[in-house]
Specification:
single chain, 207 residues, mainly alpha, 80% helix, 0% strand
Length: 207
Amino acid sequence: MIAQTLEAVAAWIQGVISALGYGGVAGLMAIESACIPLPSEVIMPFAGSLVPSGRFTLWGVGLAGAIGCVIGSIPAYYAGAYGGRPLILRYGKYVLLSPEHLDWADKFFARRGDVTVFVARLLPVVRTFIAFPAGVARMPMGKFVVYTFAGSLPWCLGLAWVGMLLGEHIDQLKPWFHRFDALLVAVGLLAVAWFVRKQLKGRGALS
């Protein structure tokens, strides 16, 4: 079921890029950066695979992807800035989030927000959702845009470069996509388990 869904998503992504060109690359990467888990690991390599035919240039694809990341991150940032804090204050207790976590996030992004956004844009899965907590912490918009672009460009270029090398043999990546997705799910579950255990342990120490 999961494999079939991924195949359908990949086919749709390829259709969008084939029809819309650079605009399709930018639009898909904007969706991926708006907290919607559309895999850039499919978007950018496929776009890169069209470079040898002359349809795209490597730098053109990389820039389109990075610009799309910035565009998609902005609404996610504002969703966090104007809706995230009230939402967490009201319902955060049900997912073990507290006002203290918000205070910690504010201080963390004030000190290391630029580096955090830059590095997060180079990490799978994390890059999709980093805009929302940056907005919750009210990271300065100018810095957020600059570091989002700076972190997104090497990510997009790197994936497009892999696709360019493979060219018409891009389908060879499909088995690796499935293994990579399984690994990400496992890492995500471990991270959630660690967070829940830490919060429950902390509450036990306070009681």
